[in-house]
Amino acid sequence: RQAGGSELADLKHQLEDLVEEGEKQQKRKEWLDKDLKDLRQKLESCQNEINAKKEEMNRNTDVLAQLDKKIKDEKAETERLFTKRQNLELQKEALKKQYQDELGHRGKVTDEHVDLQMQMKAKEDEIHALGTGKARISRQLEALRKEKASGDAETQRLE
């Protein structure tokens, strides 16, 4: 039971870590979205100076490509973490069910143990009663044998 509890605690900790990581990634995505928006505004304002700023535009295009790749990577990572979280939730529920099943089984085994103890006590009492009855019958038999021997001796004496 402790192992199941420890596993649940580990899974809960992992889930909390994943949620925290997801929140961090969401903030980073918002920052990247804002940064991307700012860059696009800058490109629009610089369109009148295209010839003079052509080199800067190429640089910004590269930056945008990197940011788009980062966004794509972050989205893929977010999806992966979401899927992992769902799997962990399923595992958590399965462990809870298994724990409840084991508790039920333990109760059943305990009840069976108590029943067997009671049956064993009843058999011990029965064996004790039979032993006591046997001793009493043995004493009565011995008394009857003595009485018969005494009666046989009396009969021989009278003959």
TrEMBL record:
<protein>
    <submittedName>
        <fullName>Uncharacterized protein</fullName>
    </submittedName>
</protein>
<keyword id="KW-0175">Coiled coil</keyword>
<feature type="coiled-coil region">
    <location>
        <begin position="8"/>
        <end position="105"/>
    </location>
</feature>
